Fold this sequence. Notes:
Elements: H1 14-38, E1 51-52, E2 56-58, E3 62-64, E4 67-74, E5 79-84, E6 89-93, H2 99-110, H3 143-164, E7 175-177, E8 182-192, H4 205-211, E9 214-222, E10 232-238, E11 255-257, E12 262-266, H5 267-271, H6 276-294, H7 299-302
Antiparallel strand pairs: 1-2, 2-4, 3-4, 4-5, 5-6, 7-8, 8-9, 9-10, 10-12, 11-12
Helix pairs in contact: 1-2, 1-3, 3-6
Amino acid sequence: MAEATSNPWPALDYAQDRGTFETLHLMSQIVGKARTARAPWVNHGWQVALYISPRGFTTSPVPNAHGLFDLEFDFVEHLLRCRASNGFLGEIPLAGQTIASFYAAVEEQLSRTGAPVRINGVPNEIADPIPFAQDTAPRVYDRDAAWRLWQALIQIERVFQAFRTGYLGKVSPVHLFWGSFDLAVTRFSGRTAPPHPGGVPHLPDAVAREAYSHEVSSAGFWPGGGLVDYPAFYSYAYPEPEGFRAASVRPGAASFHEGLGEFVLPYEAVRGAADPDAALADFLLSTYVAAADAGDWPRADLECDFGAPGVPRRC
């Protein structure tokens, strides 16, 4: 466990921690696919996501025959826990696993939950994926790196949860999408969008089109990878309205990434800010305003004051 510091936003270093992040990405795909196999479809694929928990990442309760199960990554004890309403409780250590051994262990645990669960065996949204059962190479799992990523996601979760309260329109939960391994929150204009072109690696086009069936302003966080080799926040609009990418957004470290077609803000710029919560909130709000204004969203009908604990919203 990392030592406590005065800054609750921990240091993240993609170059140093990449191996652990990639291991967790693949492990989260296996766990997420277990939820996908049993949870009925919800609009925009929300039924597949994971959630940040007081111990790590969780599926939340998943229906299974006449019962329920859940799976939770515990980054305090560095275990995956499987619990079921038939009384079963199992644990799988996260360190010292290959992806193949972890995949087999999860399927074995799920076989004891009251009904077998068959997990799709190929990763999604990854170029040239290796089937889980064939991925026998040693994998890095550094406890401190996993702990720091989880601690960062706790801080991000808090700010994202507050941001979603300032909206009367349709807004997603704050959830961790294991396909691209990003924590995201999305606002909707209420209008339908043109069909998504698809083409996401190893993701059926029908899934992408259902996910982007309506206009969105979406923001989130990646630990790094691909065109962004550092932990970063992002924000995009679909469909992208004319003038969006030229908008002025805050804070000053944010910029439009032409390769991604999204605004990007380095995590370190938030962590190093005098008020990290305010810096991230500024990015979320200013990029949403850029999307809503460029897209001519009916903002007066969609926005409201941010929520406060115990205070009913004024009608």
